[in-house]
């Protein structure tokens, strides 16, 4: 069989997967990419679950997932199913199972699909490091097979589909002890269960590799595809999602970065955008993201003339090295370029949207944590004093006339002007991703490349350009420039994040320059949001917040907002907010602090993956979280 993380890294071609049926719905192969969500109502609230499921279905959810944490909830799925059918709704239901194999066997009789988590289906998580040799590990695999086989045979008999859904936050102690907290561990966690399914000739399977860290998530899916093509009978359909993505703008950008990075390479048969919002709010977001792939003006390579040579490892992160030029490239974090070229006149107030606030009484600039590093002003003139850290790009003709002796100003040029620039002078050069010959750049090490393309397959074209950089041994830093003309702010954020997700996750790009017809504030927020979501530049607090479900033990949306209100100034801190213990403790390993529901009105507080305070009353828990942050020296007072 073939191997690799996609069909061809230079072609956006959908991975052919096995077509399966989930009730009335077909998934995989050439079927449309399906959209789904999950209820947040208590599963024992039959009427509430029915009503919320209807809202989700009417919003466009093609599958409805419902948690079944114990046998009683699994049994009640029958009542929910019958209630929906009586009202004329036949969308397939998916039972979400953790820890309780017997609940899965009950649920399989009542719904069209069962999701099991290989991290906790047959194992209890105690964060213990266990020493295994090959013989003792094989005994563990036999134990798992014994526990898992009854469900597989039942699903095979009933024609109930199964999703084997690995979560980064709930890998078993056994997997962590042998493989570590890695994409390899995530994939092997699923492969252990897949091998049992194939042994029993059960193939109605969907797979997922979810994580709140987009880099880990993307690498795990890619490795799964590689392993699946090499070692399994079928390419099974893929369910894509960034777990605990959060809410609002952050949740949307983070989801689009992770899900979009995989969709750009043709991976994915169903998606869920996991937001800490009402489940029906997830559906329009997912559909807007998918709409990006319905209009295509790809630049098609003549593959007979191009031999793709990989210049990055798709399964590990390594930054593409470029020599530093005037603060761009080298070991610097990616820069953000703001664009003011469309203005007739530039005043200090115009810099506000890009993070610079000028006080007239104090005659002083205040620079925010999300201030653009560079501004492009086109052919405009600036006649006021600028912050000393800010760089300005200006059209070549204006630079030559007005600013060539000003160290804050740099010319924007095309290739024809290269020889007119002093080799010692930093300049910004427009280049197209589909260009071939880069040999001329060897004579111009002080040029920063502004890379763009008008074609839609930007992931592949940026990859092609990166291949050419390696071919010609070019070390110039590269700023990725995208123009997105959709007037809807949400669509702008989703499509731009998808365009750039894979490229930054793969370590390419020393900056980004976004333009569009939305507000400059949205453009700047999106730029920094993409860098935050790809973990290439941290500019604010990160919230690893689950989307809620029937297991949730407090109001996640309200609590997330309370915590955000108190902590949003803590730049670089990661705070996990989890509704229950399923993924909570595991995701705490990726967060600095954790807030996890453990019982009605009770919260455990974590420092990383270690519980520090148990059973804190919910009314006191936010204050206790702040105290914990202070005790550990991570608190700073917010600026007034």
Q: What is the residue-averaged pLDDT?
A: 92
| Number of beta-strand segments | 25
Query: How would you write the strand order of the largest sheet?
Result: 8-7-6-5-4-3-10-9
Helix content bin: 25-40%
**Mass-distribution shape:** globular
Tell me the Rg in angstroms: 26 Å
Q: Biggest β-sheet: count, sense, barrel?
A: 8 strands, parallel
Query: Helix count?
Result: 16
pLDDT < 50 stretches: none
Strand content: 15-25%
What does this structure look like?
The protein is of the alpha/beta class and 640 residues long. The chain is 33% helix and 19% strand. It contains 16 helices and 25 strands. The strands form five sheets. It has an eight-stranded parallel beta sheet with strand order 8-7-6-5-4-3-10-9. A hairpin with a 2-residue loop joins strand 24 and strand 25. The chain starts with 19 loop residues before the first strand and ends in a 9-residue tail after the last helix. The mean pLDDT is 92.
List the helices and strands and how they pair.
Elements: E1 20-22, E2 25-27, E3 34-38, H1 46-59, E4 63-67, H2 71-86, E5 93-97, H3 101-107, E6 113-116, H4 134-158, E7 161-167, H5 173-179, H6 183-199, E8 205-210, H7 214-231, E9 239-240, H8 248-263, E10 270-271, H9 282-291, E11 335-339, E12 356-359, E13 364-367, E14 374-376, E15 391-395, H10 396-403, E16 409-413, E17 427-432, E18 447-452, H11 458-471, E19 478-484, H12 489-505, E20 511-516, H13 520-533, E21 542-545, H14 556-567, E22 574-578, H15 584-587, E23 593-599, E24 602-607, E25 610-617, H16 618-631
Parallel strand pairs: 3-4, 3-10, 4-5, 5-6, 6-7, 7-8, 9-10, 11-14, 11-20, 14-15, 15-16, 16-17, 17-18, 18-19, 19-20, 21-22, 22-23
Antiparallel strand pairs: 1-2, 12-13, 23-24, 24-25
Helix pairs in contact: 1-2, 2-3, 3-4, 4-6, 5-6, 6-7, 7-8, 8-12, 8-13, 11-12, 12-13
């Amino acid at each position: 069989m073939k191997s690799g993380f996609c069909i061809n890294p230079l072609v956006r071609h959908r991975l052919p997967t096995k077509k399966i049926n989930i009730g009335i719905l077909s998934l995989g192969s050439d079927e449309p990419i399906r959209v789904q969500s999950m209820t947040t109502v208590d599963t024992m609230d039959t009427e509430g679950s029915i009503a919320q499921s209807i809202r989700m279905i009417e919003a466009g959810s093609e599958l409805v997932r419902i948690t079944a944490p114990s046998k009683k909830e699994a049994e009640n799925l029958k009542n929910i199913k019958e209630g929906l059918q009586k009202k004329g709704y036949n969308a397939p239901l998916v039972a979400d199972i953790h820890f309780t194999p017997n609940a899965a066997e009950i649920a399989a009789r009542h719904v069209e699909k069962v999701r099991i988590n290989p991290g906790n289906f047959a194992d209890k998580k105690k964060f213990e490091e266990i020493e295994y040799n090959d013989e003792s590990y094989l005994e563990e695999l036999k134990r798992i097979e014994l526990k898992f086989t009854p469900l597989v045979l039942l699903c095979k008999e009933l024609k109930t589909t199964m999703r084997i859904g690995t979560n980064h936050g709930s890998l078993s102690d056994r997997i962590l002890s042998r493989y570590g907290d890695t994409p390899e561990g995530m994939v092997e966690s699923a492969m252990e269960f897949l091998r049992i399914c194939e042994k029993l000739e059960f193939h109605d399977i969907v797979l997922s590799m979810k994580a709140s860290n987009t880099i880990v998530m993307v690498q795990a899916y890619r490795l799964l595809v590689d392993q699946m093509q090499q070692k399994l009978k079928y390419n099974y359909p893929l369910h894509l999602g960034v777990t605990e993505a959060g809410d609002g703008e952050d949740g949307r950008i983070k989801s689009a970065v992770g899900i979009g990075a995989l969709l750009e390479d043709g991976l994915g048969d169903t998606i869920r955008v996991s937001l800490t919002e009402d489940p029906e709010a997830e559906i329009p977001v997912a559909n807007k993201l998918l709409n990006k792939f319905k209009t295509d003006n790809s630049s098609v390579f003549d593959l007979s003339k191009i031999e793709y040579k990989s210049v990055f490892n798709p399964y590990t992160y390594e930054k593409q090295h470029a020599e530093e030029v005037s603060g761009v490239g080298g070991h610097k974090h990616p820069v953000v370029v703001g664009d003011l070229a469309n203005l007739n006149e530039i005043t200090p107030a115009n810099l506000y949207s890009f993070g610079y606030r000028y006080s007239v009484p104090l005659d002083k600039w205040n620079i925010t944590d999300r201030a653009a590093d560079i501004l492009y002003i086109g052919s405009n003139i600036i006649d006021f004093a600028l912050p000393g850290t800010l760089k300005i790009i200006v059209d070549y003709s204006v630079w030559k006339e007005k600013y060539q002796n000003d160290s804050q100003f740099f010319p924007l040029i095309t290739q024809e002007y290269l020889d007119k620039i002093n080799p010692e002078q930093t300049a910004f050069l427009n280049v197209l991703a589909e260009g071939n010959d880069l040999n001329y750049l060897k004579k111009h090490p002080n040029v920063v490349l502004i890379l763009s393309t008008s074609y839609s397959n930007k992931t592949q074209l940026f990859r092609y350009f990166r291949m050419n950089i390696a071919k010609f041994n070019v070390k110039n830093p590269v700023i990725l420039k995208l123009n997105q003309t959709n007037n809807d702010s949400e669509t702008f954020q989703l499509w731009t994040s998808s365009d750039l997700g894979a490229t930054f996750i793969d370590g390419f790009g020393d900056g980004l320059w976004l333009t569009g017809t939305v507000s400059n504030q949205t453009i700047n927020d999106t730029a920094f949001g993409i860098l935050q979501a790809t973990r290439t530049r941290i500019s604010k607090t990160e919230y690893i917040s689950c989307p809620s479900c029937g297991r949730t033990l407090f109001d996640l949306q309200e609590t997330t907002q309370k915590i955000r209100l108190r902590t949003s100034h803590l730049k670089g801190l990661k705070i996990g907010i989890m509704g229950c213990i399923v993924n909570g403790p595991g995701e705490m390993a990726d967060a600095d602090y954790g807030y996890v529901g453990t019982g009605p009105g009770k919260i455990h507080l974590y420092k990383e993956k270690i519980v520090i305070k148990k059973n804190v009353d919910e009314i006191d828990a936010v204050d206790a979280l702040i105290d914990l942050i202070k005790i550990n020296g991570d608190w700073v007072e917010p600026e007034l």
